[in-house]
Amino acid sequence: MSARTNILGVGISLINLPMALDQLQQWIGRRDHQYVSVCTVHTVMECQRDPALRGIVNAAGMVTPDGMPLVWLSRLAGHRYVSRVYGPDLMLAELAASVAAGHRHFFFGGRDGVADRLARMMREKFPGVPIVGTLTPAVGSAEELCTPETAALINRARPDIVWVGVSSPKQEFWMSCMRSMLEAPVLIGVGAAFDFHSGGVRQAPRWMQRAGLEWLFRLVQEPRRLWRRYLVDNPWFLFELARQKLGLKRYPLP
Known about the structure:
This protein has one domain (4-245). The chain has 14 helices and eight strands. The protein has helices spanning 17-30, 41-49, 51-58, 68-76, 87-101, 114-125, 142-145, 148-157, 170-178, 193-197, 206-210, 214-221, 223-231, 233-245, and strands at 4-7, 10-13, 34-39, 62-65, 105-109, 131-135, 161-165, 186-189. Strand 5, helix 6 (114-125) and strand 6 (131-135) form a beta-alpha-beta unit. Helix 12 runs antiparallel to helix 13. The longest helix has 15 residues, at 87-101. It is globular.
């Protein structure tokens, strides 16, 4: 498990994209059973609401600094090498590396047709990449989608990485529930990456991502769905962070 920094009781891995790719390579080579939580400010705040979720995120083999505030806080703590490990970028980088490495991939998630379209587009983008299966889950809770039948279907495809494209925190609960049933070494929850890379949803321009303004771009696109995530959680995050930094509240890591 990589070194971590404590942000409101969530251990954020002190990594960058090359380090993340190297860790995936090691897990696959050793056939370690791990899952990866791609962590944003929203994830951190969901962990404040739900201690069970906080335990699941902290039990992940890697908790990537997906949101720029998490990167900035890691650097302020003295870890200058930390950079954003953004779920959609991690997916593209790992698929590109897999053309030579031979890592096998399975896509679980998305609405009807999204996973199949994503697989087709990724095969075109990375000729020769081993994408061995897709599955669009039914509507239901993480517990309802965590079944031996789903595990058997994925296991038959023999993937090395299962990419999970459902909403957060649902994907964290699903990965935690399915981990013991799946033979794939690595599960990675990447949320909206399925929609981004299949062309269903526009990504923020790179300059907005680097400036930490991706939240604003997404809020403008989907205000009814995302207003609470950004207009409530972001100020709450800053308030709780100030309390942690001033020593007014402790957030111990397990």
